[in-house]
Amino acid sequence: MKGYVFHGPGQASWQDVPDPDIKEPTDAIVKVGAVTICGTDLHILKGDVPEVHSGTVLGHEAVGEIVEVGSDVRTVRPGDRVLVSCITSCGRCRFCREASYGQCQGGGGWTLGHLIDGTQAEYVRVPYADLSVHALPAAVRDEDAVLLADIFPTSYEVGVLKGCVRPGDTVAVVGAGPIGLAAIATARLLAPERIIVVDLAPARLEAARRFGADAVADGREAPAQLVADLTDGLGADVVIEAVGVPESFELCTRIVRPGGHVANVGVHGKPVTLHLEDLWSKNVTITTGLVDTYSTPTLLRMAAAGRLPTGQLVTHTFPLDQMEEAYDVFSRAADTGALKVVLGGEQHELAVPTA
């Protein structure tokens, strides 16, 4: 089969790789039907995630069909259409028992496309399949479902819920990429008074308005003043950082109100200055986090009911074998207008051993 293989910072290729097989009785093999590219994949290619070794197939989000399961798998079987979560969970360690699946110590957490071969391939091995794939309702299309593998649960859990968004709040979202837009959509579920979005790209600010932002600001044109003007000088109740650069994080800490929350979602590849000389007396709560995906079943039900604007995020589609072109389009979002790209899998028969 073929997969998109990382070869070190700035280097990756769509190439032949070995077919995956069952290694543990809790594994499943999934024939990939749709995948997407995450901003974290771009961070890997930049060298920001050094634990990803050369030779790893990238990708941690997919929709597909179960083609083989290990002897201990009980909840899915060959032929089932499933969502492959970006997080795998052993279900037994302390963190999994607390639904902190992203911190799994039993061989789970963020493994796909990180510590083991990922989903940007024709087939993928998924460890701990009982807790790491989700059967899909027929009402949810592949291109919608694949966005529930990572960006929607990430935005909802790490941004909205950790940020403690409440009815009547002013929520500021810094960054109107896919994570920021999903944060707007899921924050709206909790009835904030207003959502303010900051970005540098006019096209993304326009997308933020479509997703429900009440006010937008160019990051180069005094966004802190806009937030102050709209909040009688107090600042935002919740600020969601959805970029992952020092400047955006520092802006978040400037526009949050005393007693407010800063929820960092962005993946940072460089150190950030924490201005405790200004923040120590303001009762500000700062949270970070890797998504746990405990909300995925809820979000799937909401998507099936038409309550999430998942399809609006997909701006480009490609066949699976055009992975390199898709990466190029996604990485040049300022020029291409890309929000999320979705790639569909080609037909490829995997040699599954018979019992």
From TrEMBL:
Record's keyword terms, sorted: Metal-binding, Oxidoreductase, Zinc
Record-level Gene Ontology MF annotations: oxidoreductase activity; zinc ion binding
Cofactor: Zn(2+)
Domain Enoyl reductase (ER): residue ranges: 8-343
Superkingdom, taxonomy of origin: Bacteria
Region (Disordered): 1-20
Signal sequence annotation: none
SMART domains: PKS_ER
Alphabetized Pfam families for the sequence: ADH_N, ADH_zinc_N
InterPro entries in the cross-refs: ADH-like_C (IPR013149), ADH-like_N (IPR013154), ADH_Zn_CS (IPR002328), ER (IPR020843), GroES-like_sf (IPR011032), NAD(P)-bd_dom_sf (IPR036291)
PANTHER family: NADP-DEPENDENT ISOPROPANOL DEHYDROGENASE, ZINC-TYPE ALCOHOL DEHYDROGENASE-LIKE
Recorded family membership: Belongs to the zinc-containing alcohol dehydrogenase family.
Name of this protein: Alcohol dehydrogenase
